Every structure is written in C-alpha cells, then in structure tokens.
Amino acid sequence: MANHKSALKRIRANATKRLRNRYQAKTTRTFIKRLRAAEDKKTGVELLPKVISMLDRLAKKNVIHKNKAANNKSKLTKFVNGLK
C-alpha cells in the first residue's frame, strides 16, 4: 500500500476516473448496438449524431484510440446511409 499522501490521492482519483470511463464506454457501446439494430433510416439518422458525439468524447479523453473512434464513425455512417 502507498505511504505518501499524494500516492493515496492518486489511487482514489484513478479509481473514480476508471469508473467514469467504464460507464461512458459501456453507454457508448449500448448506443452503437441500438444504432446497428435500427431497421429504418429515420431512427438511424436520429441516433447517429449522438453516437458520433459519444465516440468523439471517448477519443478526446483517451478512453478509446482516436483511430478506433474514426473507424467506428465511418462504419456506422455507411450503415445508416445504406438503410431504407
């Protein structure tokens, strides 16, 4: 166990950030699944900007890699454009 005050604080801060990052990443994955389950274009067009915003936020905070976010956004946009 850490002995310095700063190390103890760092442990607490890391635990808090880890929980927040996991929550945001899980929420984003859920919305991606909802978007992929969409069967009509109207639903897809409504969800796409929200999902893209979530992916950008995760990439900005280094929860996911920026290229992973870009790849996901590209695939999802292609998917929505292909809906009828």
From TrEMBL:
Q: Which SUPFAM superfamilies does the UniProt entry name for this protein?
A: Ribosomal protein S20
MF-aspect GO terms: small ribosomal subunit rRNA binding; structural constituent of ribosome
Query: Which superkingdom does the taxonomy of this entry point to?
Result: Bacteria
Q: Which Pfam families match?
A: Ribosomal_S20p (PF01649)
Q: Which GO CC terms are listed, alphabetically?
A: cytosol; small ribosomal subunit
UniProt entry tagged with the keyword Secreted: no
Gene3D superfamilies, per the entry: Ribosomal protein S20 (1.20.58.110)
Keyword list, A-Z: Ribonucleoprotein, Ribosomal protein, RNA-binding, rRNA-binding
This protein's record includes keyword Ribonucleoprotein: yes
Protein's GO biological process = translation
Question: InterPro entries from the entry?
Answer: Ribosomal_bS20 (IPR002583), Ribosomal_bS20_sf (IPR036510)
Which protein family is named in the record? Belongs to the bacterial ribosomal protein bS20 family.
Task: Give the protein's function.
Answer: Binds directly to 16S ribosomal RNA.
Name the PANTHER family for this protein: 30S RIBOSOMAL PROTEIN S20, SMALL RIBOSOMAL SUBUNIT PROTEIN BS20C
Task: Please give the name of this protein.
Answer: Small ribosomal subunit protein bS20
Q: Which organism is it from?
A: Pedobacter duraquae
Lineage of source species: Bacteria, Pseudomonadati, Bacteroidota, Sphingobacteriia, Sphingobacteriales
